[in-house]
């Protein structure tokens, strides 16, 4: 099971996205997938290129729209393990509506966000995750808008799996992606993935100094949503590990009547009117 392909990433040397690529490849192998079992759907941005750098089914979509495609894919073929991926601009600006609705819908897929607090592909503009005071080409006097507290937003939207990691922690990131893939529902994994070219503030060293690993917090219970919210607010969102998991809420597709039949993608397109009507009723 080799999820590496021969395509050489054109990310800048040192970009945090290399670790995410490696972690995703290892996690897929560790959970026992074959390349044909995995689909990676990406949006636009430096990180969006990841779908071409994994030996699996890949789809590089349009800006902010990885999740609608990933959800459609999962509903059409629930036998696939579906991973959506992109950056913080892709998922938390233009794609924010899709992100929050996917979270509350809870279709079984894993969404990995490579969060570098900047737009790298377009050469360095402020993103919705940039800190107040952050100076970029688009905010030469410093950012004055508050960054979006996306993990808190995910919890209030009804998330069933919320985790956060850091590109330097390959082992921890791989483990969280494995847990996300095994989770029966929507898994959000935000990864601090430094942009070494355009973000000179949120560097590897900055994260090492500012992140708190949840394993160091005594008595932390990732099944307690209130405690998850509290710890995020106390640490300004700068925690790593499994923040919250709801093991009880069923996935969207498990609540659809008749959905346990053969996946749509495996059914013949030459079907009787009666079978067609059955399918339509299945999704009503
Ligand atoms: Fe990575 Fe930044 Fe380079 Fe893009 S510009 S590849 S995010 S280091």
From TrEMBL:
Q: Which residues form the Pyruvate ferredoxin oxidoreductase beta subunit C-terminal domain?
A: 195-260
**Cofactor(s), names only, from the UniProt record:** Mg(2+); [4Fe-4S] cluster; thiamine diphosphate
Per UniProt, residues of the Thiamine pyrophosphate enzyme TPP-binding domain are 44-191
Q: Which GO terms describe its molecular function?
A: 2-oxoglutarate synthase activity
Q: List the Pfam families.
A: PFO_beta_C, TPP_enzyme_C
- Per its UniProt record, what NCBIfam families does this chain match? PorB_KorB
Q: Which CDD domains match?
A: TPP_OGFOR
Q: What class of enzyme is it?
A: oxidoreductase
| Cross-referenced Gene3D superfamilies | 3.40.50.970
Instruction: Give the source species.
Output: Caldalkalibacillus uzonensis
Q: What protein does this entry describe?
A: 2-oxoglutarate ferredoxin oxidoreductase subunit beta
What are its E.C. numbers? 1.2.7.11, 1.2.7.3
- SUPFAM superfamilies, per this entry? Thiamin diphosphate-binding fold (THDP-binding)
What domain of life?
Answer: Bacteria
| Record keywords | Iron, Iron-sulfur, Magnesium, Metal-binding, Oxidoreductase, Thiamine pyrophosphate
């Amino acid at each position: 099971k080799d999820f590496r392909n021969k395509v050489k990433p054109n990310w800048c040397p040192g970009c945090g996205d290399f670790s995410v690529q490696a972690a995703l490849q290892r996690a897929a192998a560790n959970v026992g997938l074959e390349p044909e079992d995995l689909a990676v759907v990406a949006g636009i941005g430096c990180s969006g290129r990841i779908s071409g750098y994994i030996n699996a089914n890949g789809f590089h979509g349009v800006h902010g729209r990885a999740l609608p495609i990933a959800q459609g894919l999962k509903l059409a073929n629930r036998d696939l393990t579906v991973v959506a991926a992109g950056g913080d601009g892709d998922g938390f600006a233009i794609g924010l509506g899709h992100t929050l609705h996917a979270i509350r819908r809870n279709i079984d897929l894993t969404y990995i966000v490579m969060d570098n607090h900047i737009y790298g592909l377009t050469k360095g503009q402020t993103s919705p995750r940039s800190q107040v005071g952050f100076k970029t080409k688009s905010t030469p006097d410093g950012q004055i808008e508050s960054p979006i507290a996306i993990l808190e937003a995910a919890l209030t939207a009804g998330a069933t799996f919320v985790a956060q990691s850091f590109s330097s922690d390959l082992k921890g990131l791989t483990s969280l992606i494995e847990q996300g893939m095994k989770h029966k529902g929507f898994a959000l994994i935000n990864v601090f993935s430094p942009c070494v070219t355009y973000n000179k503030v949120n560097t590897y060293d900055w994260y090492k100094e500012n992140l708190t690993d949840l394993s160091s917090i005594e008595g932390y219970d990732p099944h307690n949503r209130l405690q998850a919210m509290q710890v995020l607010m106390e640490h300004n969102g700068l925690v790593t590990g499994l923040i919250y998991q709801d093991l009880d809420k069923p996935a969207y597709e498990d609540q659809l009547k008749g959905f346990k039949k053969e996946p749509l993608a495996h059914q013949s397109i030459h079907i009787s009117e009666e079978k067609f009507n059955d399918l339509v009723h299945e999704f009503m």
